[in-house]
Amino acid sequence: MTLLVTGGAGFIGSNFVLDWLAQSDERVLNLDALTYAGNLRNLASLAADARHVFVQGDIGNRALVDRLLAEHRPRAIVHFAAESHVDRSILGPGAFIQTNVQGTFTLLEAARAYWSTLAEAERAAFRFLHVSTDEVYGNLAAGAPAFTEQHAYEPNSPYSASKAASDHLVRAWHHTYGLPVLTTNCSNNYGPYQFPEKLIPLVITHALAGKPMPVYGDGMQVRDWLYVGDHCSALRAVLAAGRVGQTYNIGGWNEQPNIEIVQTICALLDELRPSAAGPYARLVTYVKDRPGHDRRYAIDARKIERELGWRPAETFASGIRKTVQWVLDHAGWVAEVQSGSYRDWVAVNYDQR
Predict the structure, then answer these.
(1) Is 134 known to be catalytic?
(2) Residue 211: left if φ>0, alpha if ψ -120 to 50, beta else—which one?
């Protein structure tokens, strides 16, 4: 048996692959284009593991995807591959349309063609699991009920609009062609191997380097935070027992303003790696907010708990401590991903704020 995982060298994808192979002998065929956020070092522990087959390639390459499906005959596709950073989508939306919309379309068409060739029992067992985001639901007012799976889509950034489009394609391929799909919409992930453009690793790495920690606007944007290991366990549950055609929201039951996240990180670093220059909170720097910044997201994850028995195992306190400690223990990985192109991006995004 084989899973095809797209984007399996990225942050969430690599955590999923590592987690899957730690608990199963089922092979993973990992297709990743290795753009700036894809990193084979995330998967270094699998270098000699015959259960992991890595292929560098683009989900938009139909001939390649067709060949891989025919050769490896996966029982399921777990689709992570996506451009995912809102700030990058604002400065360069084209890549998000190409990967998230066109790429998902190409993958769906390849999956549909492959699925149609399977024997009846294999067709019935096949799954296409599409991993998406809570950002497709748009902005929540303070005090408003959290996003459920019935919440209307109101994407407000090029990133969330591209993911909303991909969600709609997945839904349509199920309702029109019968492709057995599952969709998940998760809240903000954090944990090992996260590229340091996102808030939590950005703050940790800037603090350790003695650099200003940029906080957008007043820092009171609220997000629900989900430890990546919990996300992986939820995806395993959905793949194993989710109802075909259904959407499952995956959240951490942890709403916090960004500034509180930053303050928690500072306190942990003061404890675990004190700075001779004084408390890390001295480096907090408020910068101009990004355009169209949604004020609040929150996930109602009761459906996945009710139907599949899943709840996150980590509290935010336990998850963020593990994350900070991981960064402290993996200075080499952090230094490698902070390449010249990464430094250029940080300068472009933050220097004029």
Answers:
(1) yes
(2) beta
Instruction: Give the start-to-end residue ranges of the domains of the chain.
Output: 2-191+228-253+293-314
Check 32, 87, 134, 294 and give the catalytic one: 134
Selected catalytic residue, list 32, 114, 137, 159: 159
Cβ neighbours of residue 293 closer than 8 Å, sequence gap 6 or more: 216, 217, 221
Does the active-site annotation cover 159?
A: yes
pTM for the model stands at 0.94
Cα dihedral sign for 335, 339, 345, 346? positive
**Domain 2-191+228-253+293-314 adopts which CATH fold?**
Rossmann fold (3.40.50)
How many CB atoms are closer than 10 A to CB 292? 12
Is there a catalytic annotation at residue 342? no
Q: Two tokens at 154?
A: 């109101």
pLDDT per position as a tens digit, 202-251: 999 999 999 999 999 999 999 999 999 999 999 999 999 999 999 999 99
> Given 32, 83, 87, 135, which residue is catalytic?
135
Q: What digits encode the pLDDT tens for the residues 60-70? A: 999 999 999 99
